């Protein structure tokens, strides 16, 4: 892993020096921390035509073993496109709950107010991005020599979509592999995320995509800085994800083109960076982005379009 | 005539009478006869004899010409006649006040002549930088430059010509100056333990100089400091000076007056050095055996320096002995060193070579030979210098430095069958996979000194400086039934080619003019991957991925004049011009520089300075500590140059011989300084590196106290700094100011060296620093799974940071102690050095982190804040050195 490589490099060079290795030591330290906590934490990822799920909890002090505290006697108010949708009690015994009585569509703007038992109000708003359709999905079998010098058989995929040139847009390409196999008459189903080769310049700007100094994997997240209108996004799927073995009945690759908000883009990126640095104290800690006023967390809309490829075992006549 | 008019008339008559009587009296005093019963020699002695014989008081100006060998040719003569004879070479006027004769130099412009030459050490013939050269009669003087050259223009006549340097016997010569003269001065080192006058100068050099915020530490003192594992470390010695802090305990990084580690211009024989640390900065790359002189300028930058905001560390290496071969060899726990220097052609061509290498890898090699994974680490330095004395006016130098850190691990050993090259028989060969990482500098310079006439000294330097960091990996694999390999390499760095020309022009003793310029072509390598695969070990295929290197030119020009406005006021006024070409934008800067010194007494001076600086390259830091992966990058169309404006005011006092006390306050404003954005990371390759950065402003204010005794039985220094450094970035910390990472309120350093006798000396250091800022979170809160994609490594919580650098690390303090035991041998000298670092085992923090703990009584886990210390207990060292 990238993270492991970085840590390995730093620690190897540090630790190779035996004196440093043998003499270094750790101990508890007393610094009067502003052990704050008790901030409202909101999360909601809002898709069109899906359940509305809200996470509502409280932050805790940094030295707490728990990661959150439950809220009590709390409720939230929801506004859709400026219209009040109602006031709802948040359950005391959980940190997340679903509500079926909302319907959202792409383009809806949502305002959420969460009120705790002290009547402190955390506010967040978002807009569900429009669905950006996948116009074409072209494929070509190819060979690819990675920066590690190893050659792979890959499926070169070109996914075409049209970006709105007048707005700043944020995307994520996710590929899911579903596999049905039959062994000894038993049918098994597997589902996994494809670790595809991000060969398109939208995924990186700096040319340090080598294997020895790998950067952070942003999980297919990109913005439209290099895109101006219709765009053919290229990615390479290693053959291990679509190659059919004798026991495979069918493999399906589904390409999800997520259209995200800027809030999600910033949250996800900072979350990935923050986690990447976790446990390596020589880095300046990174604050994870939040779009919640008077609180912390992320309330965001998202939408997606999809297309798929199916690989089936040829049945012998 | 009314009463009033009569009174005025009387007054005029009185004054006229007074003047007439004065004139008459004058004639009488000057006509007094002197009978010479003895034969005094020397102008001063003859004047004294006149006083004794006649009772007439004689006072005279120092601007007169004095001849220490002159004798009176008269047996009896009037005072006038004798004075006319004594001052026949430089006309004088005589003013008589009652029974007193005042002799002043006549208002004429005597011819001036120039004395020039080089100052060297008698024993090893090394040039002496900053030696004080002056005429004691006129108090006019100068100092030798970085090549030991000096030029002093004085009025003709008898002069008392002197040269002094701390730790050396004074050179004295009295003669009549009546033509341009070349004097190459050889100074003799002061015998050890001898507490005689080493200053002897009417005004100590530090007091006399306009420079402020400048400290030079004798290399001998640096060698006597107790040091980690016995490795003499130039930069750690500099860290102990007021206004300078380390980048972390045990590390060689420098933070000067609130500036970052990339704001220091470290010059090795005029060549910039980009990475100064071995082993991630635990040791500096400079081998003390090769160093002749080191000084640091923290503020009050003369116009000849530019390109960095916070400091100039000027390191000069030895030229090589022109008469004898000498050297030293040393064995320590970590490394061994050897240095040798001497003439290749006597008085013509000298050579100096120094080499240092760690040998942990060599010692441990036998223990690793059968191991499945064999790791090794080492570093080395090689300094070389050739000095060619082409003529009295020309010197040519070739200098080089090559140093590297290398770490490698070999694993997956396989014995494979290969076919012999000369026969058809099979042979066996062991192959293995390998990982390597390393970094290093290669520095080359060629310099030519030429003296035009007597007053113009020139130095032309061609410069090459290259810093590289690399990681590489070799993997062998089977393809079919044959072995193949893939070699991958990543590297980053900076490479400079430059040409520099400097002139020292000394038209009069009161002026020292410097001017010159430089052109540098920087090549930045912001990360390049190279892959080479060999199919069946027959046809290598080389592939280079991305990493376009950037070429950026940088130009500097300067002019400065260090001149005496009047005897007590001296100023250094100059301007520095620089230009840098980004992608399409050209950045320029005109920087005024002003330094001033006012002498209150000959031992006490007030000093002030104002300087502006610009910096066109910066370090993209990987982490909070210096790592070799840090990348030097240029300003761009979007990233402006960093700039600083610094003013300082201080007092320097020399209360006794070789003791210097200074107090200096400074105010520094930094603009367009760079930091990583709150939401970015060095390892975020989805953004261009320019997009990772954010620019802001900084301010540093401080007061520094420094007491320095450079020589004697007891020597050392005490330094204290009170400072505050804050930064403000619109995009960081909600736009609020926050303490800079380099902010340290109190900093104390003390070093004492004592020579017990000719065989034993010892040193003790004590350092204290109040805690540096650190960012710690205030809240922990839930983080849900991301609904898109599978993110297995996700941490289930987030930390909220309310304030940047809102906390302080615990205070730092440490005491080190060391002794040297010397013994003279037929072939030279041997020295045993031993000591202890961190004598009282203080656990100083290196970094802080949160971690889980188990309460063994309750069986519950709890979180706590922990500190990691690198050197938490006393660490002894020993080193054996021979000098021949």
Keywords:
heterodimer; A: mainly beta; Immunoglobulin-like; nine-stranded mixed sheet; 3 helices; 11% helix; globular; B: Phage tail protein beta-alpha-beta fold; Ferric Hydroxamate Uptake Protein, Chain A, domain 1; 4 domains; 22-stranded antiparallel barrel
Concise summary:
The complex is a heterodimer of chains A (317) and B (884). Chain A is mainly β and 317 residues long.
Write the layout of secondary structure elements.
The complex is a heterodimer of chains A (317) and B (884).
Chain A: H1 2-15, H2 18-23, E1 25-28, E2 40-46, E3 52-58, E4 60-61, E5 69-70, E6 74-80, E7 83-90, E8 96-99, E9 109-115, E10 121-127, E11 136-145, E12 151-162, E13 170-183, E14 186-193, E15 221-223, E16 230-238, E17 248-260, H3 262-277, E18 296-312
Parallel strand pairs in A: 2-18
Antiparallel strand pairs in A: 2-3, 3-5, 3-8, 6-7, 6-9, 9-10, 11-12, 12-16, 13-14, 13-15, 13-17, 17-18
Chain B: H1 3-30, E1 33-35, H2 43-54, E2 57-60, E3 76-78, H3 79-86, E4 92-97, E5 100-105, E6 112-121, E7 132-135, E8 141-143, E9 149-155, E10 157-164, E11 171-177, E12 181-182, E13 185-187, H4 205-208, E14 214-216, H5 219-224, H6 234-239, E15 244-246, E16 254-256, E17 264-268, E18 271-272, E19 277-278, E20 283-284, E21 291-297, E22 311-317, E23 326-332, E24 335-345, E25 349-358, H7 360-368, E26 374-391, E27 394-419, E28 426-452, E29 456-479, E30 482-505, E31 511-535, E32 539-545, E33 550-566, E34 569-581, E35 586-601, E36 604-615, E37 617-620, E38 631-634, E39 642-656, E40 659-676, E41 693-709, E42 714-728, E43 738-739, E44 746-755, E45 760-769, E46 773-774, E47 779-782, E48 797-800, E49 807-808, E50 812-825, E51 828-837, E52 847-855, E53 860-869, E54 875-883
Parallel strand pairs in B: 2-5, 6-12, 6-13, 17-22
Antiparallel strand pairs in B: 1-3, 4-5, 6-9, 7-8, 7-10, 10-11, 14-21, 15-16, 17-18, 19-20, 21-22, 23-24, 23-54, 24-25, 25-26, 26-27, 27-28, 28-29, 29-30, 30-31, 31-32, 31-33, 33-34, 34-35, 35-36, 36-39, 37-38, 39-40, 40-41, 41-42, 42-43, 42-44, 44-45, 45-50, 46-49, 47-48, 50-51, 51-54, 52-53
């Amino acid at each position: 892993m990238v993270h492991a490589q970085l840590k390995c490099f730093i620690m190897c060079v540090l630790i190779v020096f035996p004196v440093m290795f043998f003499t270094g030591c750790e101990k508890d330290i007393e610094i009067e921390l502003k052990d704050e906590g008790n901030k409202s934490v909101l999360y909601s990822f809002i898709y069109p035509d899906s359940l509305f799920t809200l996470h509502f909890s409280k932050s805790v002090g940094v030295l707490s073993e728990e990661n959150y505290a439950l809220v009590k006697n709390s409720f939230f108010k929801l506004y859709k496109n400026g219209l009040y949708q109602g006031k709802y009690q948040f359950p005391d015994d959980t940190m997340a709950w679903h509500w079926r009585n909302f319907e959202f569509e792409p383009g809806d703007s949502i305002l959420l107010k969460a009120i705790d038992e002290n009547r402190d109000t955390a506010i967040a708003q978002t807009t569900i991005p429009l669905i950006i359709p996948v116009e074409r999905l072209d494929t070509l079998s190819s060979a690819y020599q990675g920066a590690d010098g190893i050659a792979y058989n890959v499926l070169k995929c070109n996914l075409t979509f049209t970006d709105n040139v007048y707005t700043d847009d944020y995307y994520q390409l996710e590929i899911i592999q579903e596999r049905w196999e039959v062994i000894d008459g038993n049918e098994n189903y597997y589902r996994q995320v494809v670790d595809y080769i991000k060969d398109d310049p939208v995924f990186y700007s700096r040319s340090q995509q080598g294997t020895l100094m790998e950067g952070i994997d942003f999980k297919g997240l990109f913005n439209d800085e290099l895109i101006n209108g219709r765009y053919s996004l290229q990615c390479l799927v290693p053959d291990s994800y679509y190659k059919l073995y004798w026991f495979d009945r069918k493999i399906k690759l589904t390409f999800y083109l997520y259209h995200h908000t800027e809030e999600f883009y910033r949250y996800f990126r900072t979350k990935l960076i923050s986690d990447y640095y976790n446990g390596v104290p020589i880095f300046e800690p990174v604050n994870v982005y939040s779009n919640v006023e008077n609180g912390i967390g992320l309330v965001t809309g998202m939408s997606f379009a999809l297309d798929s490829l199916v690989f089936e075992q040829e049945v012998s006549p | 005539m009314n009463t009033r008019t009569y009174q005025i008339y009387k007054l005029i008559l009185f004054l006229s009478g007074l003047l007439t009587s004065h004139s008459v009296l004058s004639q009488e005093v000057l006509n007094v006869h002197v009978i010479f019963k003895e034969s005094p020699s020397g102008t001063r002695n003859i004047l004294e004899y006149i006083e004794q014989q006649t009772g007439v008081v004689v006072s005279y100006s120092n601007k007169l010409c004095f001849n220490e060998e002159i004798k009176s040719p008269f047996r009896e003569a009037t005072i006038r006649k004798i004075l006319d004879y004594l001052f026949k070479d430089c006309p004088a006027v005589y003013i008589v006040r009652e029974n007193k004769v005042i002799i002043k130099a006549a208002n004429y412009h005597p011819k001036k002549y120039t004395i020039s030459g080089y100052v060297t050490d008698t024993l090893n013939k090394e040039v002496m930088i900053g030696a004080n050269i002056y005429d004691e009669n006129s108090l006019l003087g100068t100092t030798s430059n970085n090549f030991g050259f000096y030029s002093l223009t004085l009025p003709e006549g008898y002069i008392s010509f002197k040269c002094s340097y701390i730790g050396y016997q004074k050179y004295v010569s009295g003669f009549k100056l009546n033509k341009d003269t070349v004097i190459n001065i050889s100074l003799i080192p002061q015998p050890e333990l001898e507490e005689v006058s080493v200053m002897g100068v009417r005004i100590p050099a530090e007091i006399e100089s306009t420079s402020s915020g400048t400290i030079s530490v004798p290399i001998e003192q640096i060698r006597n400091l107790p040091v980690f594992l016995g490795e003499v470390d130039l930069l750690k010695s500099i860290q102990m000076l007021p206004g300078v802090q380390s980048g972390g305990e045990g590390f060689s990084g420098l933070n000067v007056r609130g500036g970052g580690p990339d704001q220091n211009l470290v010059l090795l024989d005029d060549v910039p050095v980009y990475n100064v640390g071995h082993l991630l900065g635990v040791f500096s790359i400079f081998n003390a055996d090769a160093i002749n002189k080191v000084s640091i300028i923290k503020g009050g930058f003369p116009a000849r320096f530019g390109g960095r905001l916070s400091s100039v560390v000027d390191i000069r290496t030895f030229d090589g002995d022109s008469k004898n071969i000498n050297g030293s060899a040393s064995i320590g726990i970590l490394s061994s060193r050897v240095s040798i220097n001497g003439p290749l052609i006597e008085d013509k061509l000298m050579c100096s070579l120094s080499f240092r290498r760690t040998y942990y890898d060599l010692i441990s090699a036998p223990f690793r030979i059968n191991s499945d994974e064999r790791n090794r680490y080492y570093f080395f330095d090689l300094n070389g210098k050739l000095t060619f004395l082409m003529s009295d006016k020309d010197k040519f130098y070739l200098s080089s430095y090559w140093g590297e850190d290398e770490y490698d691990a070999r694993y997956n050993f396989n014995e494979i069958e290969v076919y012999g090259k000369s026969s058809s028989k099979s042979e066996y060969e062991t192959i293995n996979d390998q990982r390597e990482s390393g970094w290093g500098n290669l520095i080359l310079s060629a310099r030519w000194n030429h003296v035009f006439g007597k007053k113009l000294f020139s130095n032309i330097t061609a410069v090459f400086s290259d810093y590289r960091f690399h990681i590489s990996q070799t993997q062998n694999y089977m393809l079919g039934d044959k072995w193949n390999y893939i070699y991958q390499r990543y590297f980053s760095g900076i490479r400079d080619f430059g040409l520099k020309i400097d002139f020292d022009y000394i038209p009069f003793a009161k002026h020292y003019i410097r001017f010159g310029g430089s052109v540098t072509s920087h090549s930045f390598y912001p990360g390049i991957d190279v892959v080479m695969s060999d199919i069946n070990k027959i046809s290598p295929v080389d592939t280079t991925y991305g990493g376009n290197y950037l070429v950026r030119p940088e130009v500097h020009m300067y002019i400065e004049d260090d001149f005496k406005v009047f005897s007590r006021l001296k100023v250094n006024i100059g301007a520095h011009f620089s230009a840098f070409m980004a992608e399409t934008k050209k950045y320029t800067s005109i920087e005024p520089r002003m330094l001033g010194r006012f002498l209150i007494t000959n031992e006490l001076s007030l000093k002030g300075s104002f300087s502006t600086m610009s910096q066109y390259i910066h370090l993209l830091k990987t982490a909070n500590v210096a790592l070799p992966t840090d990348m030097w990058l240029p300003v761009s169309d979007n990233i402006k140059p960093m700039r600083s404006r610094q003013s300082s005011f201080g007092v320097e006092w020399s209360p006794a011989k070789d003791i210097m006390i200074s107090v200096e306050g400074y105010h520094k404003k930094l603009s367009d300084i760079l930091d990583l954005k709150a939401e970015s990371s060095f390892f975020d390759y989805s953004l261009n590196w320019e997009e990772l950065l954010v620019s802001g402003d900084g301010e540093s204010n401080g007061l520094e106290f420094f007491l320095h005794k450079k020589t004697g039985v007891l020597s050392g220094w005490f330094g204290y700094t009170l400072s505050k450094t804050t930064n403000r970035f619109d995009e960081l910390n909600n736009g609020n100011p926050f303490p800079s990472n380099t902010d340290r309120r109190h900093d104390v350093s003390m070093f004492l060296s004592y020579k017990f006798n000719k065989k034993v000396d010892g040193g003790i250091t004590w350092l204290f620093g109040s805690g540096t800022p650190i960012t710690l979170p205030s809240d922990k809160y839930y983080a849900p799974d991301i609904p898109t994609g599978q993110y297995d490594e996700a941490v289930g919580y987030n930390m909220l940071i309310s304030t940047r650098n809102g906390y302080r690390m615990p205070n730092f303090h440490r005491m080190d102690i060391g002794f040297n035991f010397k013994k003279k041998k037929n072939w030279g000298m041997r020295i045993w050095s031993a000591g202890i670092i961190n004598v009282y085992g203080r656990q100083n923090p290196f970094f802080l982190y949160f971690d889980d703990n188990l309460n063994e009584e309750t069986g519950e886990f709890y979180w706590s804040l922990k500190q990691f210390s690198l050197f938490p207990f006393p660490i002894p060292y020993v080193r054996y050195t021979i000098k021949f």
